[in-house]
Amino acid sequence: MVTHPRRLKIALIGLGRLGAIRARILAFQQPRIELVAACDTKPGSGEWAAANLPPSVKFFADPEDCMNNSGAEAVLISTATATHAPLICRALDLGLHVMSEKPISVDIITTEQVRAKAAANPHLKFLVPFCRRYDDSYRAAKLLVENGALGEIHAVETTCLDQQDPSGFFVTFSAQSGGIFVDMGVHDIDIGRYFLDVKSGFTNPRKQVNRVIAMGQQAVYNDLAKYGDLRQRMGSG
Question: 25 forms bridges with which residues in the sheet?
């Protein structure tokens, strides 16, 4: 008798730029996941879901309705940054496991409130995944650090680039994303911690992260100035 692993029932909230990609992955490329629902408040999202997802996937235009009535055991939150925290907290209150796009929030106080909510529900899984930890090139670099091939690490320097975007999305997204340092800088912070493995301590206990430097400029998209954002950045610590 052939037995099949139980599939986790997931609802996806957010069918935007990345949400649409994730919807297809969950629906067609993850044999241990059953996408039971997709949700987005934007007009036309229901039509997109009907045309691109299996008919078994229910569409909801309201996140509250989706979390209460989709039959999901877990939610994947892929919405605008400002909505992450309230959706995470609501899902946890409803007894749902949560995976959310980063960052949790654009401010520390709200982020700590979400962390406290997750800690108060230890029976539920809460994950903010950082994709670079699963990239082969970053894992190869991590191995070089761990086996001592690079010697003792004194500094980590990162640079991040993105494609030019003539559509204007790059600028409008900045209005609610927290800007390039919050929205993308969290990747650099995380990968620095990943390479240094700060949770396990340093060989030399005095070698802690003691300084972080970040720089950026507005070189092409001058409209970013009204959001206090930048186009290019680099950081070291």
Answer: none
Check residues 203 and 28 and name the one with the higher pLDDT: 28
pLDDT of residue 233: 47
Helix, coil or strand: residue 37: strand
Closest residue by Cα to residue 160 from 139, 182, 175: 182
Domains of the chain: 8-129 (3.40.50.720), 132-236 (3.30.360.10)
What is the CB-side half-sphere exposure of residue 97 using CA atoms within 13 A? 10
List of residues 6+ apart from 180 with CB closer than 8 A: 174, 216, 229, 230, 231, 233
Of the listed ranges 12-16, 111-115, 183-187, the one predicted with least confidence: 183-187
- Beta partners for residue 216, in sequence order: 233
How far, in Å, CA of 124 to CA of 97, rounded? 5
pTM of the model: 0.83
> What are the pLDDT digits (tens) for 33-54?
999 999 999 999 999 999 999 9
Structure confidence by residue, pLDDT tens digits, 131-145: 999 999 999 999 998
Handedness of CA 17, 18, 21, 27 (dihedral sign): negative
